[in-house]
Amino acid sequence: MYKSISAEEAVKVIKSNDRVYIHAAAAAPQELIHAMSARHEELRNVEVCHLHIEGEAPYANPKYRDSFHVNSFFIGKNVRHTLKAGNGSYTPVFLSEVPLLFKRNILPVNVALIQVSPPDKHGYCSLGVSVEATLAAIDNAKHVIAQINNHMPRVHGEGIIHISELDTFVEVNTPIHEFIIPAPTEIENKIGDLIAELIEDKSTLQMGIGSIPNAVLSKLGNHKDLGLHTEMFSDGVIDLILKDVINGNHKGIGAGRALTTFLAGTKRLYDYVDDNPFVEARSCDYVNNVANICQNPRMVAINSAIQIDLSGQVCADSIGTRMYSGVGGQMDFIRGASLSEGGKAIIAIPSTTKNGISRIVPFLNTGAGVVTTRAHVHYIATEYGVVNLFGKTIKQRVAALIEIAHPDHRESIDREYFNATS
Length: 422
Fold this sequence. Notes:
By secondary structure, this protein is α/β, with parallel strands linked by helices. Helices cover 25% and strands 21% of the residues.
């Protein structure tokens, strides 16, 4: 009844001036992406939109600017160059609100390119390691093309679609993109120790991907009854789940389950979540909904930043005027954790960049975007300590943040701020 076709045949439905949505993160369907990109000579003005995607993005090559324009809702490394080259744009948007772009027809989708697990005996496929805004894209796209992959894990939750919802599909047998996280540095381990001390038993965690979240997780082996309600997670949680440190028993929503909207890690993670009822993947407008997040008592949100000024403004999506990443889910979880009973919203950063430049600054760089406002910010952590800015005056914030800046920069930061404000 349902018949597979080639990727080249499947993407012929894409026409000039169409808008295409690509399944995010490690679920990006590479065979379909390459087949679409190969049509660059015949296609014109196709808008390709997505959150960050892993793997290759050949359509983002500036020499194909007449064929494809990249619209990033979160800027990944593989498309970052498009903004300067002129063949890409960035749409600032909270992760929780990305599905509204499709549901409200603000960005009508012509074609959705997705990757799913093989159908079960009832004909249902899983969106696997990434649900995020893909369900909304599927529901509102005129044509859905799926890459059915034997390697895609079958993840429980909301990302289950029947094969009849696929307009066309291709069959592949390729490993899911793996994301290897480097071991934490000494500085990152210091930050991990400080944050672990803030986390109480029976807390629920949100943390992004990277060395600092992994450092925090590595320090939680003696904690009890933790939960997960996070937009994404990686390998670092597996051992804590196996040790019953993370069991979700005291969550306020989705008790007894680990809730996520996408996963990125190694094959170990993908094997672990395959057909595992403990892990539930749902759309980002559910997972990142502040009203849902704050139902978890002792909600702890751990996020990062590029730069923080002495009043507490957090820049997390740009380096000055250069757009670097995106708004993502930081504000969703900062707000959700702040409103949670006993919750803690934490921004964690090394005090300096790899080049020794202070991340705590008197004033944000010209053109820097504020992702978390000074009114929303609570805890700030560096390797030199943790401060809670909630309820503090600007003057008190200045003193507190200088104390956790790198010692080599404290005097100059203080002097520059004083000279500009006195």
